[in-house]
Amino acid sequence: ELWRHDQQIARFQGEKGVFELVTLNHLIPQKLPLINNHHVIESDYHDALDSLNIKWNDENIRTWVELFAGEVDSTVKRIRGMYLRYNYVRFTFKELPHEEKQAFVLGFPEGKKIFFLFRFKKGLSRSEVDNAIWSLLKTVLITGKRSVQVSKARDFQSYRTNVREKKSSKFGATRKRVTSEIKNLKDWWYVETKNYVIKSNLTYKNRDLALLIQKDIEIMRKAYTAFFPPIKEIDEVSVVAVFKSREEYQQYIPANLSWSGGVWMPDRKELVISPNYIGNRKGSNAEMLPTVYHEALHQYLFYALDYVTSPMWFNEGHAMLFETCKIDRTRKTVVVRENAQRMRVLEPLIKNNRLNLEEVMSLSPNEFYQEDNLEKNYAVSWALVYFFRKAGHLYKDRNYENVCDVILQELIKTRDWQKAAMTGMATINMKELNNDFLNFWTSKSKRRIAANYGLFDRQGNRAK
C-alpha cells in the first residue's frame, strides 16, 4: 500500500473505465521487519527506500509493472515516437472476464519514467479503446518544471493565501499529491488556500469564477465548522475542480448527473464545477456560487463526520441552507437567507397541507432521490433545517433549536444515520412539529423575525 501510494500521481474513473498515472520510482523494498507478518512501520519503509539505487531496464520495468498491475501476456514492445515525442514501452495483460487492461511506460530525456494504466470495461470496440488511450496520452504533459506552473498559477490568484498553517503530516502529503497531479496535466493550474486546492483549466480571460471561489470557500468553511466541528482533525486537503467547458465537465462526471452545474464526488474526493457562460459573465459566475456553497457543505461533512452518512434531510437541508447565503467578504461573515427556489415548491405543499414531516425525516438515500418526489424532498428538507435553526427559539419548550445538535451527537456516537434520525425525532412531539411548521411558514411576522435572527456573530462564530 505504501509502495503504490507513494508513486501514484493520479487516478481517474469514467464511464469507459479507469485511468491511472504513476511514476516509476523504485521496486518494493525487500527484507523489511514485519509486524504480524503483514505490516511494516512507515519509517522503516522509507529508510529502506533511501538505500535503493535502481537502474531501469526492460526486465525490472516488467517486474515493476506486474507488481502494480498484474501478469503481462507478452514480451516488452518498445516503440519510439509513434504518437508522442518520448520513447515508450507498451504492455498488454492476461485476459480478464470484466475488463481489458493496457499499459505504457514512457521514458523521458531526464531519466523519469511514467506508467499509464488503462482498465476498460468489456464491450468497447477496438477503435473506442484506441481513441481513448491516445487522446489521454497526448493530453498528459509532464514538464517537470515546477517554477513554470507556479508562476502561471499566481496569475490566477485573487490574493496570496498562507497555506503554511501547521497541519498533520498526512494532510501535507495529500496536498502534495494533489498539486503534483495537477502539475502534470496540460493547461491546468491551481491555487491553494488553508484547507483547499482549487484546480482549473480556465483561461486567464475566464478565470473570474475560480477567483470568486477562492475568496469565498474559506469563509464558508468557517461557517460549516461552526455548526459541525470535525469529529477529529481533518487530515486531507479538499479539492475543487473548475472546468473551462461544459462539455469537459459532462465527460468527467457520471452520465446521470450531466444536468448538474456542480457535484461533490466522494469516490474521487473532488468537488467539480461546470462553467456557466449564459448571458453576462459576471452574472453567470454569481449564479454558480450557490452550487459551490451547496456542494462544498457535502464535501465538508464527508470529512468532518469521518465519512459517516447523515440523514438525507439533514445533509441536503443544510446544503440548501448555505447555498443562498450572503457573504460579507470584508468582514468574512455569512448571513443565511430564505431560499426562494425551495419556497416556490414549498408554498403549494403548505397551502394544500400535503406534508408528512416524519416521512421525509426518515427517508433513505434511495428513497430521497426518487425522481417523482425529489423536488418536494429538497424543499421540505431545506424548510425543516431553516425552521429548526432560525425559528426554533420562537416556539418555547418545544426543543426545536436543539434537534440538529442532538442528531449530530448521535451520529458521532453511533455512526448510524437511522438511529440519529430517530433520536432527533424522539426529542420532539412530531404532531406539534407539523402544526408549528405550518404556523411558521404561513406567518409573515414570524418569518420576518427568523430572517433577522443571525446564526453567526461578528467574528463568524456560531451565535450563542
UniProtKB/TrEMBL annotation:
Q: Ranges for the DUF1570 domain? A: 290-390
InterPro entries cross-referenced by the UniProt entry? DUF1570
Q: By its UniProt entry, which Pfam families does this protein fall under?
A: DUF1570 (PF07607)
The protein's name in its UniProt record? DUF1570 domain-containing protein
The species this protein belongs to is marine sediment metagenome
